[in-house]
Design brief:
By secondary structure, the protein is an all-alpha fold. It is built from 24 helices and two strands. It has a two-stranded antiparallel sheet. The longest helix has 33 residues. The radius of gyration is 23 Å and the shape is globular.
Amino acid sequence: MKSEDIIPSEPSQEQIIENKELNIWESLFPIFILVGLLAYNIFIYGDSALSGSNQFILLMGAAVAAIVGFKNKVTYAQMMEEVAHNVKSTSGALLILLMVGALSGTWLLSGIIPTMIYYGLQILTPSIFLAASLVICSVISVATGSSWSTSATVGIALIGIGNTMGIHPGMTAGAVLSGAYFGDKISPLSDTTNLAAAMAGADLFDHIKYMLYTTVPSILVAFLIFLVLGFNISAEVTPDITDKLAAIDGAFHISPWLFLVPVIVIVLIMRKTQPLIALMAGALLGGIAAIIAQPELVIKVAGGTTLDVNTAYKGVMNALTTKTSIETSNAELNELFSGKGMAGMLGTIWLILCAMVFGGVMDAIGALARITSALLNMFKTVFGLFTSTVMSCLAINLTASDQYLALVIPGKMFKKAYEDKGLHPVNLSRTLEDTGTVTSVLIPWNTCGAYNAGVLGVATGEYFMYAIFNWISPFMTLIVAGLGYKIKKMIK
């Protein structure tokens, strides 16, 4: 292994780093240490573990992996080069996180999010709220091809509506993410959908068609469970929203015209505008909407007395970058109407950077390739091949902390094995998506898990069991494989 062999810039061009000096137990040792330390750290700190201590634990895991690497003739320079590449590969995600923070700040100040909540409370009832959230996010995500954009726009509003109804935020986040990742998985606009098809060598639309055999049953199961949960919630929770509606109306100028801003953002993404550009446009439009629709709030946030150019600039800039709070006559809403701006995303960015250090060192020492290779050799049957692919995607999501690598590395490692079994590439591409794409959001230190927890303000541990579509998908792909249903063969 040489440093010049590490040459990825696009995910599909990722080099798989192998190290014949490394055995499977050495590859797994840093993972065992990391999981043990994280478990103890969470036991000590509880929900506050993500405030910083988990980040340092990831660095400790990277240090253990580095020691294993030194023992197996991997140099410090090689490890640092792969770490640098990993960090570079997340630069777009980190900038998107900052833009989401900015967008949430101006959408609060402008009254966009309060307006969504105001009308949502009148349209949605507790009995259908979770199922409706699933459907809404599914539609938006299919249209945009982006789970992240879905979470950052309608997802934030749905969390607010659910909180106001007294619904556990973990349930709402689970419904949001189930719908968001359904769309991300099957939309032809999705980067992961295109990447999985490319890695397996499958036609994009054949890949999407073949995924429906596992994706539709998974989303239907999720929908039915959310319906049942909703009816149970309806029996327990009968919120009186009159005072909350009055409090929102008293604090903000509510107008359906404010929906123009999120509609513009969604249209931009549907027209294949880069998410970073679309979100920045949404944040700036939110600032303009705040000046027009909520001038009194802009003056208050800026600490001024009259609305002039300087006060408008300062008020919008504060919403974009720092924590802002809007007080209402309802104490429950005051915490909800608190924006964090770009500063609120720094903890999540810190977590992602530390996770990339751990994943980079694990990749540089050859541990990821070694684990995947061991899983590939573990099973000899067709069902075993599907099982080892699922396990490999999960392992990469856990160790490399990156959704793309969970598609790229198993995709490259398993492609020939599927060909040798006479299996069509769509079998591999579907299995990659059923596991690599959707389970990333279930892992706190994965880029997807960290992002969505930060954006929605709900810890992964809180939404894990309610992200039904995400954790049921790998089981569904194994059930279908075990039954031998729709296992497409190569035509000779």
